[in-house]
Design goal:
The protein is built from 10 helices and 14 strands. A hairpin with a 4-residue loop joins strand 2 and strand 3. It has 2 domains: 95 residues, Ribonuclease Z/Hydroxyacylglutathione hydrolase-like (Metallo-beta-lactamase, Chain A), CATH 3.60.15.10; 123 residues. The chain is globular. It is an alpha/beta fold and 277 residues long.
Length: 277
């Protein structure tokens, strides 16, 4: 069974740093590296994930909470960094020989993994999201999006598991202490998704085989983990809901393509497939 699985974790998720790990038993990639190299190493070690499995870093956009650790990590481990030229101009200071480009909707093969980037709506110079596929299992990273455009819904429908942005609660943002221009930026089509917008995307486009949803990039000021988790758990319909934390990694989750069929318990809910150590 483990031969046909993707192992995924959020090493950190939030405006203070984003880093997502997706891999097989032999090859892995990091989507963004927005925490320090040392912190990335420490959290992977705690989870029993060896750095030697990581074969590449993919950069979604140039904001600091997505690129903080990229240069150090890439240089230390000689990792190729997949980044568009426009993002690289404003982004991390890269050693040229480690830098690789990518084109929207064209898959890149890294070991056993196939990574497909696609454009998204966000207030960065050239922002992209990614889906990662392996033997019919697909995981998507859908954060830092202002609106669930057709690209997002198209790829979301393919995912067995997804990291989905639930950045803010609308009432908390409205009544919070952020200045109006910042509130409007967050709420706008180039900003972030609210809990409600994310839930609408989930309810309208969730495939029947989606087993895990990671609520991601939660605002410290304008959201709270219990609130987001409660909203989604009430509508989960068998999908395991995990809140990706701002200060620590989640557990490592095992995603398989057959989970829906072979691990449905008597209550009709997928059992949590134990942690992969």
């Amino acid at each position: 069974m483990h031969g046909m699985s993707l192992f995924i974790t959020s090493l950190n998720s939030g405006s203070n740093g984003n880093c997502y790990y997706v891999g097989t038993s032999t090859d892995a990639v990091l989507i963004d590296a927005g925490i320090s190299c040392r912190e990335t190493e420490k959290r992977m070690k705690q989870l029993g994930l060896p750095m030697k499995k990581v074969k590449a870093i993919f950069v979604s956009h140039e904001h600091g909470d997505h690129i903080k650790g990229v240069s150090t990590l890439a240089n230390k481990y000689s990792l190729p960094v997949y980044i568009t030229p426009a993002t690289a101009k404003l982004g991390p200071i890269l050693i040229k020989h480690l830098s690789r480009t990518f084109t929207a909707n064209e898959s890149i093969v890294i070991g056993e993994l196939s990574i497909t980037p696609f454009t998204k709506q966000h207030d960065a110079i050239d922002p992209h999201s990614f889906i990662i596929a392996y033997k019919g299992i697909t995981v998507g990273v859908f954060t830092d999006i202002g609106i669930a455009c057709e690209q997002v819904t198209h790829y979301f429908k393919q995912c067995h598991a997804a990291f989905l942005e639930t950045n803010y609660d609308e009432a908390l943002l409205e009544n919070g202490r952020y200045p109006l221009h910042l509130k409007n930026r967050i709420r706008g089509n180039q900003g972030h998704l609210s809990n409600r917008q994310a839930l609408e995307l989930f309810l309208a486009n969730r495939p029947p085989f989606m087993t895990h949803l990671f609520l991601s990039h939660l605002s410290k000021e304008n959201n709270n983990p219990e609130l987001a988790a409660q909203l989604f758990t009430a509508n989960a319909n068998g999908t395991t809901i995990i809140v990706a934390g701002r200060d620590e990694a989640t557990a490592v989750y095992t995603i398989t393509s057959s989970q829906q069929n072979d691990t449905v318990g008597s209550l009709g809910k997928p059992l949590q497939l134990g942690l992969f150590q």
